[in-house]
Q: What sequence folds into this?
């Protein structure tokens, strides 16, 4: 009897053993009740989409696999990827040539559109999870801008207890999204609010206000710069990007910062103001901060920095940015932190730009932090890690 | 010379005249830089989507036209609708059987997915526009719920000057989204923050806090109720919806309200607490408020109310809701406002339910406001108008 019972237990246990190699679970990024996409412990992703009359459906991870999906008898198409790195991965589905998002996924603004994304968990990491710690609030603000001639939308993270400690004033980090994304990216994709909540709860970061602005700007009465359809890195594209960043620079310094300092209990001086951004936002950060060292003393470039806009392959500290990098001692007195980071799996073109900037700064003896995120691409897991390393270094 | 100049002017002016009958402009709901969808002054909508290898593409307005799109030589498919009523209209595009959103549109959560929508302007109306008036802030909160066993996300509108008038306490309106939507609906689709900003600036509404919660709830450790795949109005669907609303009722009364009263400067009593909701949110409102008249004294049902959940076609004031409607004088002493509204173009099934509720309340001499939104469907323009009529009646 006892042996039989053990045998039965073993037999009943078999399906559990079998599941170890097939433990797909619905992604946390799915909409309410959607069973797909699913992710397993290896980071493989299964996608499923209904397209009964389609001839060809392709799964398109922007920084990952692009694979033909297989038609099932029920009219659904399915595909399973190879293991993906941890983090949030943008994707779309191409249905007979139509590049569309997956109705089962939360929609995230990226690539100048609402795209799908799947979260592949990083085992053991809780720094971007919603934990049982005090939570800050994310606020939406609309500020008037005479530079752009309209209302502009931004998100603002306020640290826990902002509302109750009404005598306390806080330093401010301006934190910018990447090209094709918008002011919601750092919260929706990046989970910056949870990262800050957790860093602060552990005592690693000072309480701070984080302002996330919309990083595109055109002058009042002008049409938007046409950034599409121009070859990457071409003089036309550089000129359009440079114009946009210059208008944004004016908006930040003349409209946004005065509004934030008038609206929230900030410490409104350069020693308590930082700026960081990812990719395009890193370029914006570099230009805005270095041109306005009267306003900023902490600078972060996450997979984006200063070399791109010079129009040369090599950043030259002696001449670029009005020579502000030419005197390393003077720079160190003014800038409390210059921080640069890149993922080890980013495309060579992007790594090369950041590396050349890093090398040129080293040769010019410009004190800075250089951080490489192991195994991650030009994607949000890199930038979450960047923020985790960057924020604790601020405002000491 | 002068005549020639006039003639040239007239000739140059001709294309402008011609444009009067073809004055399509990009919709305000488009993503950055997208030229389609476009809307003309009649409310006609042009949609354009790239699907070069598709055999059939259909444009699918959920409460509007469903039309085959036409393939153009450049691989894009286009369609122009007949004139639509003013307001925000959900739509998707069906590409060879795949029901997907339009990459050119902002994504709005509706129909338990991210869908596309196009805003058709209402000529002369500015009550839901962002105007040059003081603006409140929309905040994101995460509150812990022992009822559901997790963190829950809600949006909270705080009136202008909340941060500076730190001695002032405010009444609270709990405002619920509809079935298939989420806590973002009243801001993103409904523009409730701008409606309140404008009502308050004109002196028509009292300053108030508006709490927009996520209207789905399952008990801690339980799977979500399966609301899909059940016939509309069937006993199985009614039971699932009823269970969900009951869990949400506990969440609102035991977790959300205490959190809001502890977090914001509310006036935490029934005389300063209202609840309203649209469609499913109206049903939730009806059940939660009538079961908790110790907590609420203002009640709004926008295209949704109390009759549905009885499981009968006819609402019976004598027996339903524990007979709270059986004594009209007692009800009037307790409830400062009972407000019901419906759009004149809503489907007969929905209008009939609201009308029968309205009629039953009239026959029972229950004092209430009955509002019909002219020419609008079971869509957001109805609910924007509802809020415009409802909010000024609160908290006097």
A:
């Amino acid at each position: 009897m006892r042996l039989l019972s053990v045998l039965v237990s073993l037999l009943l246990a078999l399906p559990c053993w079998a599941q170890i190699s097939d433990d797909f679970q619905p992604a946390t990024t799915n909409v309410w009740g959607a069973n797909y996409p699913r992710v397993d412990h290896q980071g493989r992703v299964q996608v499923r989409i209904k397209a009964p009359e389609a001839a060809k459906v392709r799964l398109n991870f922007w920084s990952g696999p692009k694979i033909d999906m297989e038609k099932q008898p029920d009219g659904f198409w399915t595909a399973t990827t190879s293991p993906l790195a941890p983090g949030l991965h943008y994707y779309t589905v191409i249905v007979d040539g139509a590049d569309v998002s997956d109705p089962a996924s939360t929609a995230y603004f990226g690539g100048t559109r609402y795209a799908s994304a799947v979260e592949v968990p990083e085992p053991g990491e809780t720094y971007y999870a919603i934990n049982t710690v005090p939570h800050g609030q994310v606020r939406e603000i609309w500020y008037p801008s005479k530079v752009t001639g309209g209302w502009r939308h931004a998100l603002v993270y306020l640290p826990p207890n902002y509302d109750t400690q009404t005598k306390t004033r806080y330093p401010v980090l301006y934190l910018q999204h990447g090209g094709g994304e918008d002011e919601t990216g750092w919260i929706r994709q990046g989970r910056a609010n949870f990262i800050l909540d957790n860093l602060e709860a552990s005592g690693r970061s000072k309480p701070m206000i984080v302002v996330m602005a919309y990083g595109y700007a055109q002058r009042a009465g002008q049409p938007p710069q046409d950034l599409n359809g121009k070859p990457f890195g071409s003089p036309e594209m550089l000129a359009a990007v440079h114009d946009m960043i210059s208008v944004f620079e004016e908006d930040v310094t003349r409209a946004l910062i005065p509004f934030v300092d008038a609206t929230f209990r900030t410490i409104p001086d350069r020693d308590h103001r930082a700026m960081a951004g990812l990719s395009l936002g890193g370029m914006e950060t570099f230009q805005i901060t270095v041109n306005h060292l009267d306003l900023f003393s902490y600078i972060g470039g996450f997979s984006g920095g200063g070399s791109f806009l010079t129009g040369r392959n090599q950043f030259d500290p002696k001449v670029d940015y009005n020579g502000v990098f030419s005197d390393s001692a003077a720079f160190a007195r003014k800038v409390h932190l210059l921080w640069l980071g890149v993922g080890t799996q980013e495309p060579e073109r992007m790594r090369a730009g950041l590396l050349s900037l890093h090398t040129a700064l080293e040769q010019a003896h410009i004190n800075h932090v250089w951080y490489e995120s192991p195994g991650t691409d030009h994607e949000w897991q890199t930038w979450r890690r960047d923020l985790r390393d960057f924020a604790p270094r601020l405002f000491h």
